[in-house]
Amino acid sequence: MNAIEVENLVKKYGDFKAVRGISFEVKKGEIFAFLGPNGAGKTTTVHVLTTLLKPTSGRAVVAGHDVAREPIEVRRKIGIVFQDPSVDRELTAYENMLIHGRIYGVENLKEKIERLLKFVELWEFKDRPVKFFSGGMQRRLEIARSLLHEPEILFLDEPTIGLDPQTRAHIWDYIRAMKEEHNMTIFLTTHYMDEAEQLADRIAIMDHGEIIAEGTAEELKKLVGSDIIYLKLQAREELKCLKADFIRGCKVLPDGRVRLDVENAAEALPRLFELAKESGIKILEVTYHRPTLNDVFLHLTGREIREEGGEGNVAKMIMKARMRR
Ligand SMILES: Nc1ncnc2c1ncn2[C@@H]1O[C@H](COP(=O)(O)OP(=O)(O)OP(=O)(O)O)[C@@H](O)[C@H]1O
């Protein structure tokens, strides 16, 4: 059963097509990530799916309702954590939760607030004004708030942008727990490859308003081709290519190492050690490289996600935070 179905979705700003006819499906209970550099069209897509923007053409059905024709029904069934903080900084964490819960008409509100603030480990800070919270605490509060009305689908736009590695890992734990404990469908956008890889069951790579590849991290990496194993052998005379059915390619490098192309390095390594033993070859050092999602993006576009993401995005976040003060 699908939680989200998108067909030929187009979103234009004036004459500019930010989303150029994308189609995809997200299954119920799945974590689905949109991975792509700044400006790829990820936020625009999230805004259309969460009914904040109207599609120019195409169709999007979210939690069983058409976003253009039944926006109110869609809104009832989804939760959103925006890229830009949207909590009230002058109010306490508890007050922010209370107001949101009342707007949505949440039943057993106080009980739910306590459970959720405990879930994101903010219960002890519930009476502190949000302006004294760190970026990570604010993001955790936003997550707790987005869960108050028990949404079927949660949209997270760059959930860990600008946060330190420890806080990011913490937020990843909450996201995994939401999926595992509540079978929640989670749609997240990110320009961090590790985030997509660590969290998502399936990933759509987006660039210039189009989905250029889609699949599990493993499936996407297979688009690049082989894993690579580098061997340093003991004797110079052993510097020749090894032959076996699991070795797709072999090259002796100028620095004296042997480079092997294999389908799966983890499976090939034990067989390689056996082969070396049988042939009386002594291996001094082994390193291997598995394609990363960055290699996939590079393979598909000739560019790196990092070039336009990473630091730039953090800088953008800091600028926005300063402007709000
Ligand atoms: N309101 C707007 N008016 C005109 N152009 C816009 C508007 N919002 C976004 N764009 C443009 O649409 C394109 C897609 O932007 P979008 O924010 O969806 O990308 P993104 O992948 O989410 O990147 P980011 O992470 O930086 O938000 C960009 O070229 C952006 O400049």
Automatic annotation (TrEMBL):
A Gene Ontology molecular function term of the record: ATP binding
ABC transporter domain ranges (all copies): 4-233
A Pfam match: ABC_tran
Subcellular location per the Swiss-Prot or TrEMBL entry: Cell membrane
Keyword terms: ATP-binding, Cell membrane, Membrane, Nucleotide-binding, Translocase, Transport
Entry superkingdom: Archaea
Major location (coarse): membrane
GO BP: daunorubicin transport; doxorubicin transport
InterPro entries membership: AAA+_ATPase (IPR003593), ABC_transporter-like_ATP-bd (IPR003439), ABC_transporter-like_CS (IPR017871), DrrA (IPR005894), DrrA1/2-like_C (IPR025302), P-loop_NTPase (IPR027417)
Membrane topology: Peripheral membrane protein
GO CC terms in record: plasma membrane
SMART domains: AAA (SM00382)
Family: Belongs to the ABC transporter superfamily. Drug exporter-1 (DrugE1) (TC 3.A.1.105) family.
Protein name, per record: ATP-binding cassette domain-containing protein
Species this chain originates from: Thermococcus indicus
